[in-house]
């Protein structure tokens, strides 16, 4: 599987998450996944909530349209963006 791909009207992201970073940023490829640095700590679901909020803002969808399908308790995640209005340029570069 590629790091980012379309699934009908949705976008699937294979992510490697680095919590407690100095800033929120897409760092590039990490093996077969996109490396996403986030400022939130990996405690009590804060990192997952932060990822959903960040991706919802970037893809211009509601937070409810960002679903972590796999990897809620780990760094390796599969995230579905349901019906994105746009794909940000930094993510589209990996399509």
TrEMBL record:
UniProt cross-references to Gene3D superfamilies, sorted A to Z: YggU-like
Cited Pfam families: DUF167 (PF02594)
Domain of life: Bacteria
NCBIfam families per the UniProt record, alphabetical: DUF167 family protein (TIGR00251), PRK05090.1 (NF003466)
Family under the similarity heading: Belongs to the UPF0235 family.
Cross-referenced PANTHER family: UPF0235 PROTEIN C15ORF40
HAMAP family on file: UPF0235
Protein name, as recorded: UPF0235 protein KJI95_01965
Organism: Shewanella jiangmenensis
Lineage: Bacteria, Pseudomonadati, Pseudomonadota, Gammaproteobacteria, Alteromonadales
């Amino acid at each position: 599987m590629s790091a980012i791909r379309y699934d009908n009207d949705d976008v699937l992201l294979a992510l490697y998450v680095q919590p407690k970073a100095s800033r929120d940023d897409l760092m590039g490829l990490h093996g077969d996944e996109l490396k996403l640095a986030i400022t939130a700590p990996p405690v009590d679901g804060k990192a997952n909530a932060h990822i959903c909020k960040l991706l919802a803002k970037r893809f211009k969808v509601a937070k409810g349209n960002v679903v972590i399908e796999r990897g809620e308790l780990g760094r390796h995640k599969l995230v579905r963006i349901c019906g994105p209005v746009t794909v940000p340029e930094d993510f589209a570069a990996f399509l």
